[in-house]
Each structure stands twice: as C-alpha cells, then as structure tokens.
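Per-record layout

source: Pelagerythrobacter marensis
name: Phosphatidylserine decarboxylase proenzyme
length: 252
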Amino acid sequence: MARMAGELVDNKGRGDVGWHWPPIHPEGRKFGLIAVGISLFAAFMAWETIAWPMAFLSLGVFAFFRDPERVVPQDDRFIVSPADGLVSLIAQVEPPAELTMDDGSGTPSLAREPVTRISIFMSVFDVHINRAPIGGTVRRLVYIPGKFMNADLDKASEDNERQHILIERHDGLMLGFTQIAGLVARRIVPFVKPGDTLAAGARVGLIRFGSRVDVYLPAGTDPRVLVGQKVVAGETVLAEIGERRLIEGIAQ
C-alpha cells in the first residue's frame, strides 16, 4: 500500500520519511531577503565585488535560521538538550537568583542549592532554535540586559545579556535554563510567555548569531553527556531525572 507524504512514522515501520531541505524560520527570512536584495542590486549595477559576497552572505543567513524538525524522546524521565552545539562546561553551581528568589508573583522557584549546570555553546554554524528540555508550564521568563562577551567563558552566565526560563512539570518538578547572548549575538527572541504549556522539545526561542544555553539539572541528577560532546536540540538526552552515575569518555 502506498504511503502518503507527511504520514506519521512509528517503530512499526508505518509512515513515510525522507531528507528534505529544512524550512527557514520566519524570524530570519527578512534578513536573508535583505541580503538577497542588496546582492541583486549590486549585480544590476555591475558591482561584482559587492554582489558575490552578499550572495554568499544571504546563503549563510538562510542557513543560520534553518529550523529542522526533531524527533523528541518520549519519556518523562529524560531532559533533552535545549540547543544544538558543543557541551563546553559542566559545573556545580547555584542557579541564578532570578530562578530562585521570591519575585512576589506567587510563582514557584528553584531551591537555593548547588546543582549541575550544563553549558552548551552554539557557533554560527549550529541551528539556533532553542527548545524546551522538559514538558510543562512556563512559570517564569526573565530578561536581563548585559554585556556581549565570549559566550564560551564561565562568567558569561552572570555578565552577558540573558533570558531565564523556568518550567514546571505536571508533577511539580522544576527545571530552569538560560539563553545567553555572545560576542556576535545581539538579540534573544522569545517564542513563549509565562503560562504557556509546552511539550518536551517545543520551540521556545532563538538567539541571533552565536550564543550559549545553560541548563540547571534537578538535584540528585547527573549528566549523561560529557564536555566536548556535540548535542542536538530536542533529541540528545542530557540527563535522566533522579539518575546518579559517573560517565567517562576519551576525546578523539
């Protein structure tokens, strides 16, 4: 029996799947079209030294804002990566004050105790759509203006422009993560607001042109990834809630 394009694929072999060019997120289309317009105008004016660089730039812009579909692991125990990129830091820290303090709104907060923070660095070549690490309700979304230092530095978590997001799962488990702008990144664009209910892997926002995302694991949870490992937003499992284990690896 012929399969219809777009039909659901499952582990029984039902459905249809194939590679295709990923769509471009609407947030990036205007930038790509501006670059294309400049390139075409320069070509019309025979300004080849401008036309060709702008043509390549337009391709780069479209690639930066690509928004591929992801296959999200369906298990409430899993915390999935909110970002594509490289695990650059894993450390024991206290969550940011914006996620632990009583803000007077009556919304819950994280406990003021050290937890494991996983930092994921996104280069300009990575997909920059960020996704929810767990399913639940957005309880806080706090934007903090700041500097634009190298997002790969540890102190970027406290000094750079950033946006904190706190999600509460149906059973009361809380998880916080932070979008951090970097040297090139100059804008954090949210797709969600407090009160929104999200599925694990749902799109929550993007950071333009290179950045970092910090994830604060719940207490008693160890990471399943290593520093130097490449992760994929919405697909790579960063940790299993309540699982404690030492993972070792060798850099190749």
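summary: The two ends are 46 Å apart (CA to CA). The chain has two domains: 26-64, 78-240.
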